[in-house]
């Protein structure tokens, strides 16, 4: 199978980690996805992993000449939809950085293209790779096994260092917003762990104190109501100090009718009626999202992130963004 990478801005590490388990997949080519990008980081990573891809400046030329089986799209965020659309029109499987679109109009366009391509056996998944981290995967298995009973309330957190971001982060047109970029992971978790649909969202965000990063929102909060009368809140920020021991601080609290489970500091902590006190659950091994995606293409399993997950969580992010911009409750259709 031939793989192409377009762009160098997103989580390409998922691809290289997965490739170590996929000797049948050849990294055939890489190309710039967005004006102003450089592929140096991807080329260096490829060489370090003993890959020798052809290098293109024009991704359309790559698609036409190489005819890859799979494309990994990881360019500037506003270009995800455009490049994904080109791949889907050609019947190419797409592993795409989130958000897969930065406008609801582009998202609707991709849904239509995928509906046509899916009938021809084309697969798509967004890079919601945190699902595969040991703590979050362990928590998911525990919730599925009934550790907290019926889920009733979820509180999720994404906190990052700000550092110095690239120019494309400073403009909404190219960045897309902090809710869909940073918050998408946490919004994905509340959907994944609850198994419910979104009904309404009220969100806020602010660019204050963003250290001259233009239109980048430094903080955001989202309050969702979900089917089954479940409530979910998501806290998003770039307030993690540079001196913190890690770049991110990812957390979720899942409260149910039989217990409460928390993921924090790469630990899974559970309180329920089966045991006294707080249990620290043993972690399952880390999974590889890209390897799982390729196995799904080959009919050898299922990726934890489906195409429908990818579209639906993106929609939730964009409706939350609209709520924050308009300062009003937004309903899901």
| Helical run tally | 11
Structure class = alpha/beta
Pattern of helices and strands: EHEHEHEHEHEHEHHHEEEEEEEHHE
* Portion in helices: 25-40%
Q: Quote the average pLDDT.
A: 97
Percentage of β-strand residues: 25-35%
Q: Please identify, by name, the CATH architecture of the largest domain.
A: 2-Layer Sandwich
Largest sheet composition: 9 strands, mixed
**Low-pLDDT runs:** none
CATH class (first level) name of the largest domain: Alpha Beta
- CATH T-level topology of the largest domain: Dihydrodipicolinate Reductase, domain 2
Q: Termini distance? A: 39 Å
Query: CATH homologous superfamily of the largest domain - what is it?
Result: Dihydrodipicolinate Reductase, domain 2
Q: Structurally, how many domains make up the residues?
A: 2
TL;DR of this structure?
This protein is an alpha/beta fold and about 325 residues long. About 35% of the residues lie in helices and about 25% in strands.
Topology:
Elements: E1 2-6, H1 13-19, E2 26-31, H2 40-48, E3 54-56, H3 59-66, E4 70-73, H4 80-89, E5 93-96, H5 104-118, E6 124-126, H6 134-144, E7 151-161, H7 172-175, H8 178-181, H9 183-194, E8 198-206, E9 219-226, E10 230-240, E11 248-256, E12 259-264, E13 267-272, E14 279-280, H10 289-297, H11 307-326, E15 330-331
Parallel strand pairs: 1-2, 1-4, 2-3, 4-5, 5-6, 7-10
Antiparallel strand pairs: 7-11, 8-9, 8-15, 9-10, 11-12, 12-13, 13-14
Helix pairs in contact: 1-10, 4-5, 9-11
Explain how this protein is built.
With 333 residues, this protein is an alpha/beta fold. It has helices at 13-19, 40-48, 59-66, 80-89, 104-118, 134-144, 172-175, 178-181, 183-194, 289-297, 307-326; strands at residues 2-6, 26-31, 54-56, 70-73, 93-96, 124-126, 151-161, 198-206, 219-226, 230-240, 248-256, 259-264, 267-272, 279-280, 330-331. The relative contact order is 0.16. It has 2 domains: 2-122, NAD(P)-binding Rossmann-like Domain (Rossmann fold); 131-287 and 305-331, Dihydrodipicolinate Reductase, domain 2 (2-Layer Sandwich). It has a 9-stranded mixed sheet with strand order 14-13-12-11-7-10-9-8-15. Strands 3-2-1-4-5-6 form a 6-stranded parallel sheet, with helices on both faces. The mean pLDDT is 97. 33% of the residues lie in helices and 27% in strands. It is globular and about 60 Å long. Helix 1 packs across helix 10 and helix 9 crosses helix 11. Strand 11 (248-256) and strand 12 (259-264) form a beta hairpin.
């Amino acid at each position: 199978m031939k793989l192409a990478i377009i762009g160098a801005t997103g989580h390409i590490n998922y691809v290289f980690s997965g490739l170590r388990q996929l000797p049948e997949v050849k990294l055939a080519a890489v190309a710039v996805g967005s004006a102003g990008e450089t592929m140096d980081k991807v080329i260096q990573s490829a060489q370090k992993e003993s890959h020798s891809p052809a290098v293109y400046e024009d991704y359309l030329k790559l698609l036409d000449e190489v005819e890859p089986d799979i494309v990994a799209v990881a360019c500037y965020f506003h270009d995800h939809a455009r490049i994904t659309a080109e791949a889907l029109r050609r019947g190419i499987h797409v592993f795409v950085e989130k958000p897969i679109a930065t406008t609801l109009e582009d998202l609707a366009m991709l849904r239509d293209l995928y509906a046509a391509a899916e009938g021809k056996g084309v697969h798509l998944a967004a890079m919601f790779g945190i699902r595969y981290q040991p703590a979050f995967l362990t928590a998911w298995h525990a919730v599925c096994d009934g550790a907290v009973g019926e889920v009733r309330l979820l509180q999720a957190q994404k906190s990052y260092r700000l550092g110095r971001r690239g120019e494309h982060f400073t403009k909404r047109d190219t960045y897309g917003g902090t809710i869909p970029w940073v918050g998408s992971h946490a919004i994905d978790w509340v959907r994944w762990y609850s198994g419910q649909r979104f009904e309404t969202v009220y969100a806020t965000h602010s660019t204050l104190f963003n250290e001259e990063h233009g239109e980048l929102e430094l903080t955001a909060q989202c309050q969702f109501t979900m089917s089954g009368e479940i409530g979910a809140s998501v806290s998003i920020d770039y307030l993690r100090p540079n001196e913190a021991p890690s770049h991110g601080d990812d957390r979720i609290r899942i409260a149910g009718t039989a217990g409460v489970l928390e993921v924090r500091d790469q630990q899974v902590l559970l309180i329920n009626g089966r045991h006294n006190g707080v249990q620290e659950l043993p972690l399952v091994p880390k999974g590889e999202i890209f390897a799982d995606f390729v196995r799904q293409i080959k009919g050898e399993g299922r990726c934890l992130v489906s195409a429908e997950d990818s579209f639906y969580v993106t929609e939730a992010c964009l409706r939350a963004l609209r709520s924050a911009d308009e300062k009003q409750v937004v309903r899901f259709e």
